[in-house]
Write a structure and sequence with these properties.
Chain B: Keywords: Endoplasmic reticulum, Membrane, Transmembrane, Transmembrane helix. Chain B: Component of the signal peptidase complex (SPC) which catalyzes the cleavage of N-terminal signal sequences from nascent proteins as they are translocated into the lumen of the endoplasmic reticulum. Dispensable for SPC enzymatic activity. The structure holds two protein chains of two kinds. Chain A contains three helices and six strands. By secondary structure, chain A is an alpha+beta fold. In chain B, α2 runs antiparallel to α3. Helix content of chain B is 60%, strand content 4%. The chains are: A alpha+beta, B mainly alpha. The interface between A and B is medium-sized, with 25 and 34 residues.
Chain lengths: 232, 102
């Protein structure tokens, strides 16, 4: 520590140690915050299966399911001072037609809707236009945590993604369920996925499955056309 | 003239402090930075504000740099007292490398 440069180096060196230790303690402090997310309602409201092409120039026709749903969930306890953002997504799941040993997946799972919910401390990172950004920032002005951010209430929500299967067949599939998932992305610490096992103060997400439902048959557009042609 | 100025500039840049000062600055840096880390964490945790914790930590660290890096006068309160240059004649029976020193 005899010269300025040595003092600069030593001070910076110890600063990195302190910063790392504080970050580790912040990550560990997450364990002290109880996580009790709950789902009120998760149900389908309107299910359709249509035929379509994967892209404009494709000659292949596939079946796509468009699943509208309602969701009521309270994930506000997932927001603590160390939460950067919450990723919430809904998947549709159904058992494989072939079952075991058929070389297919045992369970098919496809995301139909997702959303990133930023914590007020991460609002500046949200991928939004200037107007929406202003609105988002104003919604939590002066607050470091906003519990309202975790309250989801969707009525008859249109899916973001229409789903299909590698075989291209999806109509009349039964035993389909919707499942709500989340993952918590902290500022420092580990990314935590949906809590499938209870871990001290972190409770599992209960009631996050919808009732089983059946995908309907394809809408018969061609028959309608034929009928229309016959009547004219 | 130019040499003198260069010497002064070098002294200022090197910023040497005495042994007691080195002991003091080491203690000061360790204690102050630990304290800054603790304050940053607890303020952030109890006010549930991560940005506050980050800024407190950075500002505190900057203050510690200001305190520790420049050769402040209180790090130079115990200068080393060197023997005078070319003072007394060497003792008559001084032995160096098995040879009698004249």
């Amino acid at each position: 520590m005899y010269s300025s440069v040595v003092r600069l180096q030593n001070t910076f060196g110890f600063f990195t140690t302190v910063a790392f230790a504080v970050a580790a303690i912040i990550a560990a402090s997450d364990l002290l915050a109880p996580r009790t997310p709950s789902v009120g309602v998760l149900k389908t409201t309107n299910v359709q299966v249509v035929r379509g092409r994967p892209h404009y120039y494709s000659s292949k026709k596939e079946e796509y399911a468009i699943i509208k749903f309602s969701l009521d969930a309270d994930l506000s306890t997932l927001f603590t001072w160390n939460t950067k953002q919450l990723f919430v997504y809904v998947t549709a799941e159904w058992p494989s037609a072939g079952g075991h040993g058929s070389g297919q997946n045992a369970t098919n799972q496809a995301v139909i809707w997702d959303s990133i919910i930023t914590s007020p401390s991460a609002d500046h990172l949200a991928n939004l236009g200037p107007v929406a950004m202003k609105k988002l920032r104003r919604s939590a002005e002066g607050k470091s945590i906003d519990p309202n951010r975790g309250k989801l209430s969707l009525k008859n929500q249109r899916p973001k993604y229409q789903i299909t299967h590698p075989t291209g067949k999806l109509a009349e599939q039964d035993n389909v369920v919707l499942r709500l998932h989340y993952n918590v992305q902290p500022w420092v610490g580990l990314l935590t996925w949906n809590q499938d096992v209870e871990f001290w103060k972190w409770k599992t997400l209960r009631n996050n499955l919808s009732k089983k439902f059946v995908l309907p048959a394809i809408k018969k557009k061609e028959e309608k056309k034929k009928k229309a042609g016959a009547s004219s | 003239m130019a040499e003198q100025i260069l010497d002064q500039a070098r002294d200022l840049f090197e910023g040497q402090i005495d042994f007691e000062g080195q002991k003091l600055v080491e203690l000061l840096v360790n204690v102050a930075l630990t304290l800054v880390g603790a304050i940053a964490f607890f303020a952030g945790y109890f006010l549930q504000d991560i940005k506050l914790a980050v800024y407190l930590g950075l500002i505190g660290t900057a203050a510690v740099f200001v305190l520790a890096v420049p050769p402040w006068p209180f790090f130079n309160r115990n200068p080393v007292k060197w023997l005078p240059v070319g003072g007394a004649a060497p003792p008559a029976n001084l032995v160096v490398d098995d040879k009698m020193f004249r």
